[in-house]
Amino acid sequence: MLSLRRSERLCEIRKEESPNKNVKKEEKKEGKEREETCSTNKKRKRKDIKPNKKDKEVKRTKENYTKKKAAKSEDGETKVLSVFNQRILYYLKLENKPERVEKKSRKTKITQDMFAKRLSNITKYVGAHVSISGGVQNAITNSLFIGGNAFAVFLRNQRRWTAPPLDPKNIEAFRENCLQHNYASKFILPHGSYLINLGNPDQEKREKSYQAFLEDLRRCELLGLTLYNFHPGSTVGNCTKEQSIQHIANCINRALKETSNVTCVIENMAGSGNIIGSRFEELADIISRVDDKNRVGVCIDTCHAFAAGYDLRTNKAYEETMQEFSRHIGFQYLRGMHLNDSETELGSLRDRHANIGKGHIGLEAFRLIMNDDRLNEIPLILETPIGPDDELSDYHKEIELLYGLIGKKSPITTNCVKTHITEKNKAKRKSKKSK
Ligand SMILES: [Zn+2]
Ligand SMILES: [Zn+2]
């Protein structure tokens, strides 16, 4: 709707600008473009002028132009400007580049006052997995809209093996945006491709995964990121878990030698079938085989843990789970968490994320997390389901909810998010309300 309105407006501007003698040239140049962009105008024109389309259209545009000029004359007299004067006006307008002004206003559409206010003096860094659509640098803007103090991103299309290299301009913009908006690299937790399986016993397939894994790590380094979160892998039913774990550790060791700064953060899994990493022991096993212990870590996904049988619902159950984590892995390896409720029951082994407080885990577990000092100073990332149109406000509400659980209610105002919702969504909401 918005773009249609814009294109209609552009058409009007062009019509206003077209002087008599340039009309034909303009028509030739912009004819195609007009036909594409002004579909509504086109339909109208077709109805009005079927035969001799070009001539009549030119005539119409001339008339339009003279009418507008007549209406706009400053001294109040309804005099029609001469063709010469119109032409001068046209070139003056060209010099002022009205179309560029349009573009500029489109660029500056996102303003600081649209961003949610972020909490300061915090120990819990809550945020969400945000989109990089339009360029990796947009992740920061998306996080700012929801008041995120941390964020996660995919570094490329997570369902494809190959991706074009990152644009140097986007890399620069990403780094600048992070600095400007105070997102330290330890609170940014990029997520690896779902295709990567470092535990695959098939050497050729594992090598393909390894190359994608290495490329992701290099992307992190280009962006100035120091954490990289990935799923450990699977035996694919063709080897023992121990063999698979050894493959994973070998790949991590190899990648750490080929890079210099990034920490490999292994995520716990929900644990069906041949998947590695549903038990804390398995994650600990991988870590024990990694040479550089400073550059390996763990991310606990609450939904995955719950599905794997780690209860978090009561104070007692939560403490037992955390003690088990501490015993097998240790909080010194905890580099981040994924905060997700679970659609399925304890020990279901199924990975189905639910919104905070709306699944089988329940709000109390998240209250315990938000008040657990062992989880300070790490990114706490939401990967909860989002509505088809309203992604940002959903995350925004959950961030607000989570901060509310430590008695520090976020000062975020709902206006911040509302401004970002597209015109289309606004219309939808209105029509719903009116019903
Ligand atoms: Zn994950
Ligand atoms: Zn996760």
TrEMBL record:
Tagged with keyword Transmembrane helix: no
Coiled coil: none
InterPro entries assigned: AP_endonuc_2 (IPR001719), AP_endonuc_F2_Zn_BS (IPR018246), Xyl_isomerase-like_sf (IPR036237), Xyl_isomerase-like_TIM-brl (IPR013022)
Domain Xylose isomerase-like TIM barrel: 146-402
Molecular function per GO: DNA binding; DNA-(apurinic or apyrimidinic site) endonuclease activity; lyase activity; phosphoric diester hydrolase activity; zinc ion binding
Xref: Pfam families: AP_endonuc_2
Annotated segments matching region Disordered: 1-72
Record keywords: DNA damage, DNA repair, Hydrolase, Lyase, Metal-binding, Zinc
Cofactors (names): Zn(2+)
A GO BP entry: base-excision repair
Cited SMART domains: AP2Ec
Top-level taxon in the UniProt lineage: Eukaryota
Annotated GO CC locations: mitochondrion; nucleus
CDD domains: AP2Ec
Record's keyword annotation contains DNA repair: yes
Biased composition (Basic and acidic residues): 1-37, 49-72
Entries under PANTHER family matching the protein: APURINIC-APYRIMIDINIC ENDONUCLEASE, ENDONUCLEASE IV ENDODEOXYRIBONUCLEASE IV
Record family assignment: Belongs to the AP endonuclease 2 family.
Name of the protein in its database record: Apurinic-apyrimidinic endonuclease 1
Source organism of the structure: Rhizophagus irregularis (strain DAOM 197198w) (Glomus intraradices)
Lineage: Eukaryota, Fungi, Fungi incertae sedis, Mucoromycota, Glomeromycotina
